[in-house]
Amino acid sequence: VFEHVVRAPEDPILGVTVAYNKDTSPLKLNLGVGAYRTEEGKPLVLNVVRRAEQMLVNNSSRVKEYLPIVGLADFNKLSAKLILGADSPAIQENRVTTVQCLSGTGSLRVGGEFLARHYHQRTIYIPQPTWGNHPKVFTLAGLSVKTFRYYDPVTRGLDFQGLLEDLGSAPSGEIVLLHACAHNPTGVDPTPQQWEQIRQLMRSKALLPFFDSAYQGFASGNLDADAHSVRLFVADGGECLVAQSYAKNMGLYGERVGALSIVCKSADVASRVESQLKLVIRPMYSNPPIHGASIVATILKDRNMYQEWTIELKAMADRIINMRQQLFDALRSRGTPGDWSHIIKQIGMFTFTGLNSEQVAFMRKEYHIYMTSDGRISMAGLSSRTVPHLADAIHAAVTR
Ligand code: LMR
Fold it and tell me: SUPFAM superfamilies per the record (predicted)?
């Protein structure tokens, strides 16, 4: 009965890892998926995470009962505080509902389904380009997807004029997906002044912001600074949605731990919204897993552990910045044609190199370097040892 099923293509991002795993060359280098690696090229479990896990294991009173549909209460409260700020008026006024979800993707999906059922508009505008999973998540959630201009390939920076024009001509009330910081895949963020202009435009047209915050702490190394865009929109008293992921900033990738917060106009609305979120979640996966959320809650509620986390997070962010400089210097010293200053200007985990899909294919075939076909490289996958190999490959790709 399944003979008619055609083979689906691999995922454009996770499929890069599948191809990489099959490569037997000792030179191979995976710069596809956004996952942090150490200078030795190894995945990193933060010390503070190990410590939290140890505490959880040693606590014999812990049980493995189901969590509530909305997840771990402490985790939800602390996650809202982390992104909105401890002194957020929305939190103080009890008008935020936060539910634990399956990392960033799960939070986007639950938020998308809630909007498709209960919001008066059905279209979400996503930046062009954006994370490849965004359009799929929102389409399957029941929304229509349109794009707004975001990236200018000529300047390799923000197409701010295009962004304002496109959001300015979107019908009033539509949903707009915004990357809270460290835009994926471009590494290009609006400045604080530009964020303020975006806020004014969106509020004047009643456009509903849906933030994807997957890299808090990874853009600047500072958790509060990286929450600036979200807090700006919350400070004006209006509504918004925020999807948070702890995959990158706590290195909890496989634990699938994240949160969806919906900022409402009143406490009463927030509690009704939460009751409906439960109806989205229960038939989808019943309730979320307990382990990752317990790790996050343990760290966020302990002053010392929180401090330790910020130090480890900053070290990851700094190593990535250092990789940017090393790659830029390596290309300059090779005299590689082109202006590569965007490597040091772009922020977060990724560099949007400007390499085209043929050049990417060439680098995979000849140099065993793996990246997404749009030319995005995960700077977090690089090390001082592998920078020369990547620079040689880029040089060869652009001069062939
Ligand atoms: C990425 O963009 O590489 C990450 O967000 C991982 C993923 O799930 O795609």
Answer: PLP-dependent transferases
List, in order, residues 6 or more apart from 8 with CB less than 8 Å away.
none
CATH 1.10.357.10 fits 14-45+318-399, yes or no: no
- To 5 degrees, how large is the angle CA 339–CA 344–CA 349? 125
**pLDDT tens digits, one per residue of 173-218:** 999 999 999 999 999 999 999 999 999 999 999 999 999 999 999 9
Any atom of ligand 1 within 6 Å of the Cβ of 33: yes
Active site residue 314: no
Kindly report the CATH class assigned to 73-301.
alpha beta
**What's the rounded Cα separation, in Å, for the pair 131 and 372?**
11
Question: Where do the structural domains in the chain lie, given as residue ranges?
Answer: 14-45+318-399, 73-301
The finding on whether 184 has its CB within 6 A of some atom of ligand 1 is: yes
Ligand 1 atom closest to the Cα of residue 372 is 3
Assess contact for 293 and 71: CB atoms under 8 A.
Answer: yes
Question: Is 152 a catalytic site residue?
Answer: no
Is 34 near ligand 1, meaning CB less than 6 Å away?
yes
CA atoms 277, 278, 280, 281: torsion sign: positive
367 alpha carbon, distance to own chain's centre: 28
Inter-CA distances, 394 with 24, 144, 186, 369, 398, Å: 21, 38, 18, 10, 6
Is residue 301 annotated as part of the catalytic site, yes or no? no
